[in-house]
Amino acid sequence: MDARTSDAARSVLEAPDIARVLTRIAHEIVERAKGADDVVLLGIPTRGVFLARRLAARLEEITGKPGRIPVGSLDITMYRDDLRLRPARALARTEIPDDGIDGRLVVLVDDVLFSGRTIRAALDALGDIGRPRAVQLAVLVDRGHRELPIRADYVGKNLPTSLRETVKVQLTEEDGRDSVLLGLRETTPADGK
């Protein structure tokens, strides 16, 4: 999620849209994986974890296997390449399902795909945890502007943006409502404008 969104942000996805795209992504995962027997969902904090849990619930509905889709979270803070450029941030939790990830299909889940650096960090973090059979990426929004050769396997919405725009994902679990807002980045005196 981008920070510093101006108050003039407009909604591009609301709760029903988000529910619909998560259902579509769940169906796509089942189709590509030919089921979901070896799928492990790992959400990238913060909102990716909530999205991963919602995807797991939909996968369980589709496959008729309640409680059988392992879900975890993958904190990437210490693997970021901008640690020395940003203020210190608190570590989130990494929670790997009891059966681990070795030999499994790991689907990383995040809210917004932007430069690709977060996903690169997640791939580095995964390498320290185990050796999945394959790794795929599911994102709610792909806003473009990639800086690394990374692409999502499952995209809720492609949202072409300019670098002056921000994308803010709100989820009920964290923000009290579901929405995706597109706004303009607030300028500061440091921006020289």
Automatic annotation (TrEMBL):
By its UniProt entry, which Pfam families does this protein fall under? Pribosyltran
The answer to whether the entry has keyword Membrane is: no
Q: What does the record list as GO biological process?
A: regulation of DNA-templated transcription
UniProtKB keywords: Glycosyltransferase, Transcription, Transcription regulation, Transferase
EC class name = transferase
Q: Would the keyword Cell cycle turn up in this protein's UniProt record?
A: no
Checking InterPro entries in the record gives: PRTase-like, PRTase_dom, PyrR, PyrR_bifunctional
Entry's family note = Belongs to the purine/pyrimidine phosphoribosyltransferase family. PyrR subfamily.
Name by which UniProt lists this protein: Bifunctional protein PyrR
> Which organism encodes this protein?
Streptomyces rhizosphaericus
Q: Which gene encodes it?
A: pyrR
